[in-house]
């Protein structure tokens, strides 16, 4: 059994969900600075996530969902999922982002599964709280290890861009840094040379 594991934000989609939500809510600069520090490994991922989501408190739920479901895909997103399926891979997304986005794009892209976090709501607006299985820097490694055991995976391909993807790279037979930060490139087996996800099929 072969498993391909994709990060979501800035990997499958050409955006950081939290940043797009924050921009629409007028707190874009503060959240972007916080995100950058976390993705470069300069801030604790868990603390950073809590801080950034808290800035979204009061945002309209309908607006937030609409944004999550209209994120731009990277070039080749459909083709890479289809191509990996044809080569016998199960394809899943592990994301520190949110189910409103990952669940929508799971169906759109035909992924086999998605694991991400849930934005809490109260009376039609975001409460500023978040929970889920993907909240810490090593969450992706923990989930990947569980999937490898559950599915009896013999070969794992991992694709990501940020510091929090490095933990899952360590459990993969092949890791690809795509649209990646320098810290992530150094930890990967392969560094993608383009922003076209179809390039991944050259290595899979």
From TrEMBL:
SUPFAM superfamilies: HAD-like. Its cofactor is Mg(2+). Transmembrane segments: none annotated. It catalyses: O-phospho-D-serine + H2O = D-serine + phosphate; O-phospho-L-serine + H2O = L-serine + phosphate. Its EC number is 3.1.3.3. The active site is at residues 7, 9. GO terms for cellular component: cytoplasm. GO terms for biological process: L-serine biosynthetic process. Keywords: Amino-acid biosynthesis, Hydrolase, Magnesium, Metal-binding, Serine biosynthesis. The keyword Metal-binding applies. Pathway: Amino-acid biosynthesis; L-serine biosynthesis; L-serine from 3-phospho-D-glycerate: step 3/3. It holds the Pfam family Hydrolase. One of its GO terms (molecular function) is magnesium ion binding. Belongs to the HAD-like hydrolase superfamily. SerB family. PANTHER family: PHOSPHOSERINE PHOSPHATASE. NCBIfam families: HAD-SF-IB (TIGR01488), serB (TIGR00338). This is Phosphoserine phosphatase. The lineage of its organism: Bacteria, Pseudomonadati, Campylobacterota, Epsilonproteobacteria, Campylobacterales.
């Amino acid at each position: 059994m072969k498993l391909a594991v994709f990060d979501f934000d800035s990997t499958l989609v050409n955006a950081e969900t939290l940043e797009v939500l924050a921009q629409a809510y007028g707190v874009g600069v503060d959240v972007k600075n916080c995100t950058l520090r976390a993705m470069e490994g300069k801030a604790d991922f868990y603390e950073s996530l809590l801080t950034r989501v808290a800035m979204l408190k009061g945002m309209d739920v309908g607006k937030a969902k609409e944004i999550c479901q209209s994120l731009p895909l990277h070039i080749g997103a459909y083709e890479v999922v289809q191509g990996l399926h044809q080569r016998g891979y199960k394809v899943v997304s592990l994301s520190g982002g949110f189910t409103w986005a990952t669940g929508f794009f799971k169906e759109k892209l035909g992924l086999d599964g998605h694991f991400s976090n849930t934005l809490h709501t109260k009376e039609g607006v975001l409460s500023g709280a978040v929970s889920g299985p993907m909240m810490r820097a090593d969450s992706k490694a923990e989930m990947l290890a569980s999937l490898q055991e559950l599915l009896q995976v013999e070969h794992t391909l991992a694709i990501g861009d940020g510091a929090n993807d490095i933990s899952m790279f360590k459990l993969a037979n092949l890791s690809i840094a795509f649209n990646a930060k320098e810290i992530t490139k150094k930890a990967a087996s392969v560094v993608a040379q383009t922003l076209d996800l179809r390039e991944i099929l050259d290595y899979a």
